[in-house]
């Protein structure tokens, strides 16, 4: 048991932040950086796509739904592989692996965000749109200032679930040898080759704590907002 703990303690800095001192983040730090970067790209992209699908309908909506269904119907691992080989051909230079995986995660997640936000928009009563238009708001202003804030508030639990899945999906970066948590855990295991159970139990526990922490923060925010609304109405 002591030996199992020792292998974690001896490699803890590498598992947590990789070679950050040399300017090369890894481990948990790189996992979080990729997740945050992908979320920062996927959220506004998904909102814009949902807004376009809701605003224009018809052919635009059908094309966006087709795109989203294709992306969601393909395993993420293939999206990573495609961008890994496609982006250098398009840009003429090799991109860092972490950037490629972050873009793949963002592209994949944006489709789920689009579906969630569009469902939130479609669930709103039609009278809100009509009331805003009678008050002189344009269609774009109504969407941006009234409907989107309401829809985003309603679908927050769904978005939290999407981003928890995004955080877990960063583990797929190991397939292109990006040194995030799963990859560096595998490197430690290959070097030590004695205590794989301890190493990967630790890795799973870290992912659980990260995802659980995100869920708890979101629930705490929801609880505060609900309490504030009850206080305001009471």
TrEMBL record:
<dbReference type="Pfam" id="PF00528">
    <property type="entry name" value="BPD_transp_1"/>
</dbReference>
<dbReference type="InterPro" id="IPR043429">
    <property type="entry name" value="ArtM/GltK/GlnP/TcyL/YhdX-like"/>
</dbReference>
<feature type="transmembrane region" description="Helical">
    <location>
        <begin position="142"/>
        <end position="164"/>
    </location>
</feature>
<dbReference type="GO" id="GO:0043190">
    <property type="term" value="C:ATP-binding cassette (ABC) transporter complex"/>
</dbReference>
<feature type="transmembrane region" description="Helical">
    <location>
        <begin position="97"/>
        <end position="121"/>
    </location>
</feature>
<feature type="transmembrane region" description="Helical">
    <location>
        <begin position="194"/>
        <end position="217"/>
    </location>
</feature>
<feature type="transmembrane region" description="Helical">
    <location>
        <begin position="24"/>
        <end position="51"/>
    </location>
</feature>
<protein>
    <submittedName>
        <fullName>Amino acid ABC transporter permease</fullName>
    </submittedName>
</protein>
<feature type="domain" description="ABC transmembrane type-1">
    <location>
        <begin position="28"/>
        <end position="218"/>
    </location>
</feature>
<feature type="transmembrane region" description="Helical">
    <location>
        <begin position="63"/>
        <end position="85"/>
    </location>
</feature>
<keyword id="KW-0029">Amino-acid transport</keyword>
<keyword id="KW-0812">Transmembrane</keyword>
<keyword id="KW-0813">Transport</keyword>
<dbReference type="GO" id="GO:0022857">
    <property type="term" value="F:transmembrane transporter activity"/>
</dbReference>
<dbReference type="InterPro" id="IPR010065">
    <property type="entry name" value="AA_ABC_transptr_permease_3TM"/>
</dbReference>
<dbReference type="InterPro" id="IPR035906">
    <property type="entry name" value="MetI-like_sf"/>
</dbReference>
<keyword id="KW-1003">Cell membrane</keyword>
<comment type="similarity">
    <text>Belongs to the binding-protein-dependent transport system permease family. HisMQ subfamily.</text>
</comment>
<dbReference type="GO" id="GO:0006865">
    <property type="term" value="P:amino acid transport"/>
</dbReference>
<keyword id="KW-0997">Cell inner membrane</keyword>
<keyword id="KW-1133">Transmembrane helix</keyword>
<keyword id="KW-0472">Membrane</keyword>
<dbReference type="InterPro" id="IPR000515">
    <property type="entry name" value="MetI-like"/>
</dbReference>
